[in-house]
Design brief:
Elements (H helix, E strand, L loop, with lengths): L1 H9 L1 H39 L3 E5 L14 H7 L5 E11 L18 E5 L15 E4 L10 E4 L1 H7 L6 E4 L2 E9 L9 E5 H11 L1 H14 L3 H6 L2 H12 L8 E6 L5 H11 L4 E4 L1 H44 L1 H9 L4 H38 L11 H27 L3 H6 L2
Length: 427
């Protein structure tokens, strides 16, 4: 091993440049890989939850974006009677902070904090995620106060909140009754509240809904006789407003199925009976969509890192070829005094591996420092985009060693096959 380091130090400039090439590649691999780990952690948690239910959304909307479409309470109650359905729960979701009209996307990266309205009267339970681990307090349950909230780990940390604290949400006061344990997934950024409170916040922040509620209240006070005197168009509009109920404001519904039932079969039953009113997303189909999106994302992220690693690998190949051509006489002498082809090949392969592992350690170190710095800067906004774990870091170092060995293998075999006479004759 000491001989390997001496050989590396004999050509400091070339060795440093080669290690730098590996360092850049491993740095990119570390950063991109940790980003993929974080993404997959989030996606994995989301997949586990979403495949534990049948998701129903109103026609004219897309998954994750209701776009103003809602599921009437009557439809939810009818879905609950479909054969194989155990329970149905309506849901409302909206950003925790009302979007800035001049910057509706929020301008940040990562997942933004959101409000999740829960139907506490429903017997619905997600098949894969029946409980949430709590850091303190308890999760929302039937009988809790109308202004009670359970908040995610990141939300609590960002706003320095604990159980029994008052949390102001969109101008209204709520009481924190529970703080969720850290999951490194979506729930860290959630604020769970009773669905009635979430609906009211949605109405207050949506001019159309606010106007509809006001019209509904006004229409309820008009007598049938006065209504009959109005023009047909006005009468129709008031009748529609009169029929509106706040309970109809559910952006989606989560459906659980009975024990012994197949989720796909139950999903198809709902789809057949309500094909004109709703879109049914089965657990299997949603799982496949999530897997496809995850695979594409990982391929893009890791592909860019692999390019950098290939460049680093070629730099090792070039260095080892040049080193062998300069050390032909040394190789010849070793063979003349009894060194076997295998030992010669092993020496040069190991030297390439050492170059790889040194570059890997440096690249990993720089990558970890960069990741910790960026995560620290973005933690306050809940936009951490990197995740590190010991297994991944050990894997990075091992990979850099393997990369070095593979890159040095061909030059090493070339060295081992040299003829003694030809090698010694080189000056």
């Amino acid at each position: 091993m000491m001989e390997i380091f001496r050989n590396m130090l004999r050509r400091k400039g070339r060795t440093i440049l080669t290690i730098t090439g590996i360092t850049v590649g491993i740095f990119a691999f570390t950063v991109m890989g940790s980003m993929a780990l974080r993404f997959n952690k989030i996606i994995g948690g989301g997949k586990r939850y979403i495949t534990g239910q049948i998701t129903v959304i109103p026609k004219g909307s897309s998954f994750g974006d209701s776009a103003g479409a809602f599921l009437p309470l009557d439809t939810i109650n009818k879905i609950a009677k479909v054969d194989g359905v155990q329970a149905v729960a309506g849901g409302v979701s909206l950003p925790l902070v009302e979007p800035d009209p001049n910057n509706p996307t929020g301008g940040g990266i990562g997942q933004q904090a959101s409000i999740q309205g829960m139907d506490l009267e429903s017997a619905y339970k997600n098949r894969n995620w029946t409980t949430m681990q709590m850091k303190e307090g308890h999760m929302l349950e039937k009988g809790d106060a109308a202004n009670a909230v359970a908040i995610g780990y990141t939300v609590a940390a960002d706003q320095k909140l604990k159980v029994n604290d008052t949390m102001k949400i969109r101008g209204k006061d709520f009481t924190v009754i529970g703080v969720l344990d850290q999951t490194l997934t979506g729930p860290d950024q959630y604020v769970f509240m009773p669905i009635a409170a979430a609906r009211q916040l949605l109405i207050d922040s949506t001019p159309f809904l606010k106007s509809l509620v006001e019209q509904s209240t006004a229409a309820a006070n008009i007598s049938a006789a006065d209504l009959a005197k109005l023009p047909a168009a006005t009468r129709t509009q008031l009748l529609q407003a009169k029929a509106f109920k706040v309970e109809d404001l559910s952006q989606e519904a989560a459906v659980s199925w009975k024990d012994g039932q197949d989720s796909e079969t139950v999903a198809n039953r709902i789809k057949d009976q309500f094909k004109n009113d709703v879109i049914v997303l089965s657990p299997t189909k949603l799982g496949e969509q999530i897997d496809n999106a995850s695979a594409i994302f990982n391929a893009i992220i890791l592909g860019s890192a692999v390019i950098a690693l290939i460049v680093g690998g070629f730099s090792i190949i070039n260095t080892m070829i040049m080193s062998i051509s300069e050390r032909k006489r040394e190789i010849g002498i070793k063979k003349a005094i009894g060194a076997s082809n295998r030992s010669i090949a092993w020496d040069y392969t190991l030297e390439a591996g050492v170059i790889g592992i040194v570059g890997g350690l440096v690249g990993l170190g720089i990558g970890v420092v960069a990741i910790l710095f960026i995560n620290h800067k973005t933690a306050a906004s809940g936009a951490e985009i990197f995740l590190l774990n010991p297994t991944f870091m050990i894997g990075v170092v091992a990979f850099s060693f393997v990369l070095g060995v593979l890159a040095g293998l061909i030059p090493a075999l070339r060295a081992s096959r040299m003829k003694v006479v030809d090698a010694i004759r080189e000056l």
